[in-house]
Specification:
Helix content is 22%, strand content 26%. The termini are far apart. By secondary structure, the chain is of the alpha+beta class. It catalyses: L-threonyl-[protein] + ATP = O-phospho-L-threonyl-[protein] + ADP + H(+); L-seryl-[protein] + ATP = O-phospho-L-seryl-[protein] + ADP + H(+).
Length: 801
């Protein structure tokens, strides 16, 4: 192949010119009459260095944004825009007219945006290397400039003078005006404020420089510092510094859509690395304000950091994450700041139809909606607070903290979940099997009125006898066509409980021949099914084997005990099959699967969600041990047997199966019940097995939930392999609990609770069963109602034998 050096230099220069993108206009002044059109491979006006460009950027699959952006990096980051509230359609044109006006019009010529200036002496436009677009006169006086009309960003050499402001965009992908603004007030105070969205007026400040009477302008200098200065230039408030020189980094400071003011850097010298890759995305400096947007917004008007009826958690990237409480869903999942709505009929205040029993309470720890309360009570218990909210038709949520109870009504505002909040939110939702009686009553009244009206008309008409004959004929046809199938569709219900008795053929059909397997173990395989008689309701069908050889009545007796359980932290048993050799259980379907896949998979729950799951599991076990009609010992508590519903609520499964299995049924090679790593020591000794075996297993599970680490790996053969329980206790004893939750920012910010929960777990895994607390006391300790004492070494019982 011929070398490039064989070709003359002018020829090579010609080739380079041909390869240079023709979309960009040659840098320099932009003459009157020049224009750009919104289209693919958009042309643009570049600055002399090529660092910045002015032109059109297409936003998603929508319209075009007239903007200024960083042009030498892969991420064409917008720093200014003209028409964020009104994107331009394809074919729109921005023109520097002969009269010196900069105007954006749609393809029909209708004006979309215009640069407002008082002078008609514009001679040219220019895109400057500072990122400033200017309209200038012949004597280089700037008659209009983008720096004087900022959107959400300031750049080095830019000053934001009193009463200037930045307005955040609405979302990451929407450039319309959003919910926050950064303002130098006329009184000299620099503030971050929420806006009375969609109006331009402001609500209240959630951050302030506290410089009333002295502040004048925000300066972004070439050394990379952002600060508030007085009129004489002295620095009053340093906002961001130590960013590095603007010669080495592209820099921008932006009020982002989440309400946080951040300073970003991007290296200039290595635009593309030697490996051919671009650098990582813009790097934020740690000096952003405010430091915790979730907790810093507490205002009487507006929704807070997230939308109404939602709550905010701070992510590891310091960005707010918005969530709906259980019983609520996002109004628009693609726009979470619109807030959440109740997905149930609210409680009626009609005394003729009291609905107290139709509602239940869901709990969220460390959660609050400040300023939404309408009643406040002192020196009360959590149970009193819970019942007070259930009995009050206005109450949507009650907050219980340190013996105080606050009732709150819809809409809830300023929601946040963080360790500093403390207490517990008691959220009232309608029970799943409950309907709104007033609505039904209204419907019945309407039906009754309709029948009365129809009867009056018919009785006064000569066709009444004909109508009766037609009705009789209809009833006869209906009887023959519909009565028989309904008889065939009827099913047996176990007396005393709402458990259906299925035939094997029904379940074979529901599971499509037991085709889709959800999981399996040593005593059962679980299949996904859909019940045709219940509008294709999804179910989990568990085929049991190695069953106790006992009569049908004994089998049904044990099922009856399980069927009578009713708790939000238990998976509901819907029915069974006891036909021939087939022993099958039918459960409600849990879409998110087991806790094991959450804890040890790719998307683990955050710290607060994990604490809710741990508390829910404890409450479920407390119910099985002490509150249901027949005491049930689970015997196999582990992450695989804790399922997670749509609201990340813990649901214990496989409870009560211990009595249904053969006495030698085992999950280990030791001939004992349970799973290796979770089995209580008394299984190995000649000691009675009590509910304390579940307490031990819960202690191991609690450590796994705290650490997001497995207690036991069956395939690991290394004798030095760490045992989670031993390691966690050593970390607690050596005061190194930060190692237990390393790389978990939320947990690191809540170390007091981490310590308490580890202490509770250590109490649970005591080798002496008598030292282990009951599950009732575990729940009380986790809720903060009972003090957690210093636990002894878990293995001290063995050393004393």
């Amino acid at each position: 192949m011929a070398s490039a050096l064989q070709y003359p230099l002018p020829f090579l220069l010609l080739i380079l010119l041909l390869l240079y993108p023709t979309a960009a206009q040659t840098p320099g002044n932009i003459s009157l009459g020049s224009s750009l059109t919104a289209q693919r491979n958009d042309p643009y006006w570049a600055s002399l260095s090529g660092d910045f460009a002015f032109g059109f950027q297409q936003i998603g699959q929508g319209g075009y944004l007239l903007a200024i952006w960083f042009n030498k990096i892969q991420e064409k980051t917008v720093v200014w825009s003209a028409n964020g509230d009104n994107l331009a359609p394809r074919g729109s044109k921005v023109e520097l007219t002969i009269n010196g006006q900069l105007v954006l019009c749609d393809p029909t010529g209708k004006e979309i945006w215009k640069a407002h200036l008082d002078s008609s002496r514009v001679a040219y436009a220019a895109m400057l290397d500072s990122g400033n677009l200017v309209l200038a006169s012949t004597d280089t006086v700037y008659l209009w400039q983008s720096f004087d009309n900022p959107t959400d960003t300031i750049l080095p050499t830019k000053t934001l003078r009193q009463p200037g402001k930045l307005v955040s965009r609405y979302s990451k992908t929407s450039y319309s005006n959003g919910r926050f603004q950064f303002t130098v007030k006329p009184d000299g105070n620099l503030v971050l404020e929420t806006r009375a969205f969609p109006m331009d007026s402001s609500n209240e400040a959630y951050w302030s420089s506290k410089t009333v009477g002295s502040g004048f302008q925000v300066v972004f200098n070439q050394s990379g510092s952002v600060y508030l200065a007085a009129r004489n230039g002295s620095i009053l408030k340093m906002i961001s510094s130590d960013a590095g020189s603007t010669e080495d980094f592209y820099q921008r400071a932006i009020l982002e859509y989440d309400g946080v003011f951040r300073h970003y850097l991007y290296p200039k010298s290595t635009t593309i690395s030697r490996s051919g890759r671009w650098p990582e995305a813009w790097s934020p400096l740690s000096s952003f304000i405010p430091s915790n947007i979730c907790g810093d917004i507490t205002q009487g008007t507006g929704s807070g950091a997230c939308g109404f009826n939602s709550y905010c958690t701070l992510g590891n990237d310091q960005r707010p994450n918005c969530h709906c409480p259980e019983g609520y869903t996002f109004i628009d999942p693609d726009d979470v700041v619109k807030g959440c709505k109740q997905n149930f009929q609210p409680q009626s205040c009609d005394e003729a139809f009291p609905e107290t029993d139709s509602f239940d309470i869901r709990s969220l720890i460390n959660t609050d909606w400040p300023l939404s309360d309408y009643e406040h009570f002192l020196e009360q218990t959590e149970d009193w607070c819970r019942q007070a909210c259930l009995a009050d038709c206005f109450c949507a949520v009650a907050i219980f903290r340190n013996g105080e109870c606050w009732k709150k009504k819809i809409p809830l505002s300023n929601g946040r979940m963080e360790s500093t909040v403390g207490g517990i939110a008691l959220i009232k939702i309608r029970k799943e099997n409950s309907t709104s009686k007033p609505s039904d009553a209204d419907s019945k009244d309407k039906d009754r009125s309709t029948l009365i009206l129809l009867g009056s008309v018919l009785l006064s008409s000569s066709v009444f006898l004909n109508f009766l004959l037609l009705l009789a004929a209809f009833l006869i046809v209906f009887r023959f066509n519909h009565w028989k199938p309904k008889v065939l569709q009827s099913y047996e219900v176990m007396p005393g409980v709402n458990l259906r008795s299925f035939t094997y053929e029904e379940l074979n059909k529901a599971t499509n021949g037991f085709k889709e397997e959800l999981g399996n173990g040593s005593f059962a395989t679980v299949y996904k099914g859909a019940l045709e008689s219940d509008n294709r309701e999804l179910v989990a069908v568990k085929k049991l084997y190695n069953m106790v050889r006992q009569g049908d009545q004994e089998f049904k007796t044990e099922l009856s005990a399980i069927g009578r359980t009713n708790h939000r932290n238990l998976v509901q048993l819907l029915g069974f099959c006891n036909e021939g050799e087939h022993r099958i259980l039918v459960y409600e379907f849990m879409r998110h699967g087991s806790l094991a896949s959450f804890l040890f998979g790719g998307s683990r729950p955050n710290w607060y969600q994990r604490m809710q799951i741990a508390l829910g599991t404890a409450r479920g076990l407390f119910y099985l041990h002490e509150e249901c009609s027949t005491q049930i010992i689970h015997c196999d508590i582990k992450p695989q047997n804790i399922l997670v519903d749509d609201y990340l609520t813990a649901r214990i499964s496989d409870f009560g199966l211990a009595k249904l299995l053969k006495t030698d049924q085992t999950r280990t090679a030791t001939g004992i019940r349970g799973t290796k790593g979770y089995v209580a020591p008394e299984w190995f000794r000649n000691m009675p097995v009590t509910v304390k075996v579940d307490v031990y297993s819960f202690g191991i599970l609690l450590l796994e939930i705290i650490c997001c680490r497995k207690n036991f790996e069956a395939e690991v053969q290394d004798e030095n392999e760490m045992i989670l329980a031993d390691w966690a206790y050593d970390c607690y004893k050596d005061r190194k609990l930060d190692l237990v939750v390393a790389n978990d920012k939320e947990a690191m910010d809540d170390m007091k609770r981490v310590e308490i929960y580890v202490m509770i777990a250590v109490w649970c895994i005591q080798e002496d069963p008598s030292l282990r607390p009951t599950m009732k006391k575990v729940v009380q300790m986790m809720e903060g109602a009972v003090e957690v004492l210093v636990p002894p070494d878990p293995s001290s019982f063995m050393s004393s034998i």
